[in-house]
Specification:
Blueprint lengths: L1 E4 L3 E7 L6 E8 L9 H11 L4 E5 L9 H17 L3 E5 L3 H13 L3 H30 L1
Parallel strand pairs: 1-4, 4-5
Antiparallel strand pairs: 1-2, 2-3
Helix pairs in contact: 3-4
């Protein structure tokens, strides 16, 4: 399960059973300030789709350092590990939201309001797909 964690939403994506393709699933509303992290909905998805691990986007700064958003993503990963006991990995997500926005503008020609409703789900899909692509290339080298 790929997750794009923000302060108000978590974009969710899942891979196919073979781990080749990623598809955006949904956006879970959260409220970081109030300590609401959508874990109940994550559990429902984990159970329904028999999730075996989590991949979280790690929003690094352009100079490769970790800022507050990356630290928040890491804290969310720790919460998932504690709650589910499943492995958690992180994928550099620099510019994936920008890429998702560009894709929606160029390919779907959707309004800003409509883009806002799907951008996190699409970003989660891109994060997961990048990971799956890289993982496949690593396996080819072995």
């Amino acid at each position: 399960m790929g997750l794009d964690v923000g302060s108000r939403t978590v974009g969710v994506a899942l891979s196919d059973e073979l781990g080749w393709t990623a598809q955006g699933l949904e956006i879970i509303p959260i409220n970081e300030e109030q300590g609401e992290f959508g874990i109940e909905r994550v559990k429902e998805i984990v159970d329904q789709y028999e999730v075996v691990g989590f991949l979280l986007g790690l929003p690094k700064n352009m100079n490769n350092t970790l800022g507050p958003r990356a630290q928040a993503s890491q804290a969310y990963g720790e919460l998932l590990t504690t709650t589910f006991g499943l492995p958690v990995d992180f994928e550099d997500e620099r510019l994936t939201t920008v890429e998702a926005e560009r894709m929606l503008v160029e390919q779907a020609d959707t309004s800003r309001k409509k883009r806002k409703k799907v951008i996190d789900k699409l970003a989660a899909g891109l994060i997961l797909q990048n990971y799956l692509n890289r993982k496949g290339k690593l396996l080819e080298l072995l």
